[in-house]
Structure formats: structure tokens, C-alpha cells
């Protein structure tokens, strides 16, 4: 019995669904650390975009978009960066091509931009680099956002960037598109595999994280032509490894260190903390691997997966050949087909007392838990190179459509090589 | 590539140390 308890989670089935409460529990870490921001679920009760009314996103659409993001990540890893130039006037004619896809972009933070400060909610994304927000005037189209669109002409700390600057030259690696010129000002363009895009001026502006953490002259995209999956939010905070990313630009203050916790429920906030303040002593580290030259992803080396205390029989080359990365914007973990097959088989065997039901979208292993008050599920742990063993939280195993359709939140890639 | 997604990251403390070239994990990061 002791062994079973160690290797499994026993949870209330009712806790799998979002709380019906409209209250919001704030992260103590984000409330007490000076370089820390509250992380909220974009559609949750804690989101300032939601007016306290939790919404139920369309799960099938979220998973469809998640697959689009994964497809574009694979494409980005397998191709050299594009060097197309973009121009503001032609931007709506840009073909949709593989790039970093936003996907459902579930988690947001609020940062202050400009002087005086404008609080803007940005999707935070470790899978891309350029920070951008919608700007006035919209020369073509802007999508609806909750907060007022940033107006650079009303900020005393805003500067356009010259197209001869090094920063403009860095756009190729940060966005996949070289910058171009408009009256000597640098124009950026970033487009996504689902036809979302942002085009505008590369600019410098004051960023205010908290009252004590303020940065002048941060490069960002002031987008005057934006379309896509961003409805409600003001833009995106790029946390990748490229030199134009926010962590790289604030390296003198934070040494490219940041940490976060994604909340388990839409009625809680997590934190995004820059610098090493408050990092747990129990953190286990694994080296960042270079997954492909020229990309700014955070690469990981998966060594093994354990289900219910049992290591899955997966040859190490199954993981090492394609490599792996961590991404705050991808929803469902993707595994090489052989690894996913082993995980699914072991998980189903250990869940055999619960009835199975039909799959949804990319998720094919689902259970009907409607007849149960509690459920005992096997623990899942990932081992990474360097000896880090990461046991997933109980909320990190299932994706819940409804109590009668609770699915294993993993999917297989289509090909062992990707 | 395999991708470690955000459902699996929930409640973990995830630490990115770009200068040190490492990523770290700890349990109960939101509490």
C-alpha cells in the first residue's frame, strides 16, 4: 500500500474541473518579490482581460491551434531561417509560412510600457523572441484588445530604431525575417503558420515590470498591422534565447535568469520572476542543449520517463535523435511515437479500473470518471540529462474536457525523426 | 523534437538560467 501511495496521486474527481468561484487567489511569490509579475490564465477569473468572468475556451480549437504551433516549431527546426524582407505596405499580402505559431497562448503577464506608463497584458512565450504590442495608428488592421492600444506619440520615452542599426540587423534571427527600411526607420515583420502576423516599427521604449524594476530603451515591435489569434491581449513578451529577447536585453540586471510557475487553475495566479530572487533550493537543473544551430529554443535532453514508479522501456536514442525543447506556449507535451506508445500503454494498464472513452483531437487516451468521487492515477516523471528527475504535478497529467472525458495530456509526434 | 508543454509544467517552478546554460525544475512552484 505504501508503494502504491508513493507512485500515484489520489485526487478528488471534482477538483479536475475549474472552480465555479469568481474569486482569485494571488501568488504569494508574485506579491512579495520585487521583480515578479503575476501570471494568469488568459481566460480565467484572475485575468484582467476577463472582468472576473471565467470563460470556457473551445478545447478542440485550443488543441487544433496547439498542433499548428507544434508543426511550425518542427518546421522551424528543420529549415534555415527565412531572409525575406518585409515592408509595412505589403504586409497583408505576406503568405502564411512556417514560423513560430502562437497557438492558444494561454498565459499572460501585465507590464508597463512607455511614459506615462500603460499597463498592457502580454502573452509570455519562451518559444519566441521579439516582444511586440499593437500600436496606434493602425495602418491596416488591428485586432480587438481589452486595454487601450499603445500610442507612441503620447509617450516621452519612445524612439524609432534606425534601419542601419545592429538591432535592426538582428531581426533575421529573432523573427525569421530581415528588417527593412521606411524613411530610415526599421520595419519588423513576424508572421505565423496560421496566418497571424504583426508588422510595424522596431522601436525602443521604457518597460516597467514593477516600481523598482524599470528598463529604458528596450527594443520591441510597435505593430501597426496585426492579425490573428491575439484577441484580447495587447501583444507578446518574447522570452527566447535570441539577443533581441527580453531576458537578453535585461541581462545586465538579471543575468538571463527568470523563473515561473503556471497556475493549476484559472482562479489562481502564478508568477513570472526575473532574476534569481526566491528560486527554490530544491531546483534540479539540466543543461540546455543546442537542438539545432540557429534556433533560440531552450533545448532539453530527455533520458527516461517513469510511470507509476516504473521506467518505460524506451531506448535512449528514441529521445536523443530528435531532441527536445521546453516551451511555455505549447499546451500538450509531444513525444516521439515510440516513447508515446510506451507511455500510453503503461498508463492505460495502471488505469485499467477506470472505463475508457473516445478520444478528442490529438488526445487518444481518455477516461470516463463520472462514476467516481476520487481517482488514483499513476505518477509520471521525466528524467533529464545531468540527473534531474521531474515528477509532474497531478494537474500535469490530464487534459479535462468534462468529467466523462478526461484525457491523458500527451501526444505523439507523427514521425520518430521530429 | 519532443516538446515539454505547459500542461505538464503546471505548478512546477521552472527556472531558465540562460547565462549558466541550464533549465531547472522544482515542485510546488506556485505556493
Q: Can you characterise this structure?
A:
The complex is a heterodimer of chains A (about 425) and B (about 30). The two termini of chain A are about 40 Å apart. Chain A has 9 helices and 27 strands. The longest helix of chain A is centred in the N-terminal third of the chain and has 20 residues, at about 60-80. In chain A, a hairpin with a 4-residue loop joins strand 3 (about 105-115) and strand 4 (about 120-125). Chain A has helices spanning about 1-5, 30, 60-80, 165-170, 170-175, 245-250, 250-255, 315-320, 335-350, and strands spanning about 10, 35-40, 105-115, 120-125, 130-135, 160, 180, 185-190, 195-210, 215-225, 235-240, 255-260, 270-275, 285, 300, 300-305, 310, 325, 335, 355, 365, 375-380, 380-385, 390, 400, 405-410, 410. Mean pLDDT of chain A is about 90; it is low at about 80-85 and about 85-105. Chain A is about 15% helix and about 30% strand. With about 425 residues, chain A is an alpha+beta fold. Chain A has a 6-stranded mixed beta barrel. Chain B has about 30 residues and is mainly beta. Chain B contains 1 helix and 3 strands; from the N terminus they run βαββ. Chain B has one helix spanning about 5-10; strands at about 1-5, 15, 20-25. Chain B has a two-stranded antiparallel sheet. In chain B, a hairpin with a 4-residue loop joins strand 2 and strand 3 (about 20-25). The longest helix of chain B is centred in the first third of the chain and has 4 residues, at about 5-10. At the A-B interface, helix 3, strand 12, strand 14, strand 15 and strand 18 of A face strand 1, helix 1, strand 2 and strand 3 of B. Strand 12 (about 255-260) of chain A pairs antiparallel with strand 2 (about 15) of chain B.
Amino acid at each position: 500500500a505504501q508503494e502504491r501511495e508513493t507512485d500515484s496521486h489520489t485526487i478528488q474527481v471534482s477538483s479536475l474541473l475549474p472552480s465555479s468561484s469568481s474569486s482569485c487567489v494571488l501568488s504569494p511569490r508574485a506579491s512579495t518579490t520585487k521583480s515578479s509579475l503575476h501570471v494568469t490564465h488568459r481566460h480565467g477569473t484572475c485575468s484582467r482581460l476577463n472582468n472576473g468572468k471565467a470563460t470556457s475556451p473551445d478545447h478542440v480549437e485550443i488543441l487544433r491551434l496547439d498542433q499548428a504551433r507544434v508543426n511550425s516549431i518542427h518546421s522551424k527546426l528543420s529549415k534555415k531561417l527565412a531572409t525575406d524582407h518585409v515592408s509595412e505596405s505589403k504586409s497583408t499580402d505576406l503568405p502564411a509560412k512556417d514560423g513560430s505559431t502562437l497557438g492558444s497562448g494561454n498565459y499572460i503577464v501585465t507590464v508597463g510600457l512607455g511614459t506615462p506608463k500603460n499597463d498592457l497584458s502580454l502573452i509570455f512565450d519562451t518559444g519566441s523572441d521579439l516582444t511586440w504590442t499593437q500600436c496606434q495608428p493602425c495602418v491596416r488592421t488591428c485586432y480587438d484588445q481589452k486595454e487601450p492600444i499603445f500610442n507612441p506619440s503620447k509617450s516621452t520615452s519612445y524612439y524609432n530604431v534606425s534601419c542601419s542599426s545592429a538591432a535592426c540587423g538582428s531581426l533575421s534571427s529573432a523573427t525569421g525575417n530581415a528588417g527593412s527600411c521606411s524613411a530610415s526607420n526599421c520595419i519588423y515583420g513576424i508572421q505565423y503558420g496560421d496566418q497571424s502576423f504583426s508588422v510595424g516599427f522596431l522601436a525602443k521604449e521604457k518597460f516597467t515590470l514593477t516600481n523598482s524594476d524599470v528598463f529604458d530603451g528596450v527594443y520591441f515591435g510597435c505593430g501597426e498591422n496585426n492579425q490573428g489569434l491575439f484577441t484580447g491581449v495587447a501583444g507578446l513578451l518574447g522570452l527566447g534565447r535570441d539577443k533581441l529577447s527580453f531576458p537578453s536585453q535585461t541581462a545586465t540586471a538579471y543575468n538571463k535568469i527568470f523563473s515561473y510557475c503556471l497556475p493549476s487553475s484559472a482562479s489562481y495566479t502564478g508568477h513570472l520572476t526575473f532574476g534569481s530572487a526566491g528560486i527554490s533550493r530544491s531546483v534540479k537543473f539540466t543543461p540546455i542543449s543546442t537542438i539545432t544551430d540557429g534556433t533560440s529554443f531552450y533545448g532539453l535532453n530527455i533520458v527516461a520517463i517513469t510511470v507509476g514508479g516504473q521506467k518505460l522501456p524506451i531506448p535512449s536514442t528514441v529521445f536523443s535523435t530528435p531532441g527536445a525543447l521546453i516551451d511555455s506556449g505549447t499546451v500538450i507535451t509531444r513525444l516521439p511515437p515510440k516513447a508515446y506508445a510506451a507511455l500510453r500503454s503503461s498508463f492505460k494498464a495502471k488505469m485499467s479500473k477506470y472505463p475508457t472513452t473516445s478520444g478528442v483531437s490529438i488526445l487518444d487516451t481518455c477516461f470516463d470518471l463520472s462514476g467516481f468521487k476520487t481517482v488514483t492515477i499513476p505518477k509520471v516523471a521525466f528524467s533529464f540529462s545531468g540527473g534531474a528527475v521531474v515528477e509532474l504535478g497531478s494537474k500535469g497529467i490530464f487534459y479535462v474536457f468534462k468529467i466523462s472525458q478526461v484525457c491523458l495530456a500527451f501526444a505523439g509526434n507523427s514521425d520518430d525523426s521530429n | 523534437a519532443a516538446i515539454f508543454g505547459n500542461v505538464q509544467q503546471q505548478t512546477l517552478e521552472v527556472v531558465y538560467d540562460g547565462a549558466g546554460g541550464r533549465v531547472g525544475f522544482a515542485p510546488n512552484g506556485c505556493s
